Amino acid sequence: MKKIFNWTNIRLILMLGLVVFLFSFTSKRNEKRKIVAIKVFFVGENNLFVKEETVNKLLIENTSNPLAIEKDKLDLNKLERKLNSNAMIDESDVFVSIDGVLKAVVKQKTPVARVVNDVESFYIDYKGGKMPLSDNFTARVPLVSGNINSRNEAELAQLFCAIYEDDFLKKNIIAIEVMPNAGLKMFNRNYDYQIDFGSMVNFETKFKNYKAFFQKAVLDSTLYKYKKIDLRFTKQVVCTK
């Protein structure tokens, strides 16, 4: 019994050693494999601002020739940082698959408004950052003009996101003017009236009031009669013909 017990232990040790050796050998061999291809995947709704060719170029520029580099020599964190530094990209994930394919999963920024002034024109993205215009695609978002500065840009970004997230407001509000007194004027897509929105205080309630008014006015066929819709007072909507 003692000899059988010892032989069993020896066999287990040998098998374990063989498994460790094979695993180590396979891992080393896998690390030494060269990259065989590059593939780019876009996630999210907005995949039009950056082309696949642009991402490929960023990857190639920062790895000399990635198809000639061994997997263990590739700095994936560096590649991700380079992609994320692109003004159109929100975040990315770069990795190498088992079969040697360098893959980049890219999420592009989401514009929620377009600022237009005498100096420049740019988008405001969903996170409140500045995003340049794209030669590939023009987003259908509200045009924003007027007095935009460091004191009000954060609040304005929240307002733009609220419009973007609401299907009705997203289709209805096409332009916003920021007045010198920090009040807002808004313009809708299908009617001649302008919206005197007032300040951004309680803007969620003001939007709620506007949507309720609009639905009732559509049923009454009275929207075309108005020149101004006043939302400054959160308890009521005042209309001027």
TrEMBL record:
GO terms for biological process: cell division. Keywords: Cell cycle, Cell division. The keyword Cell cycle applies. It comes from the Bacteria. This is Cell division protein FtsQ. It comes from Flavobacterium plantiphilum.
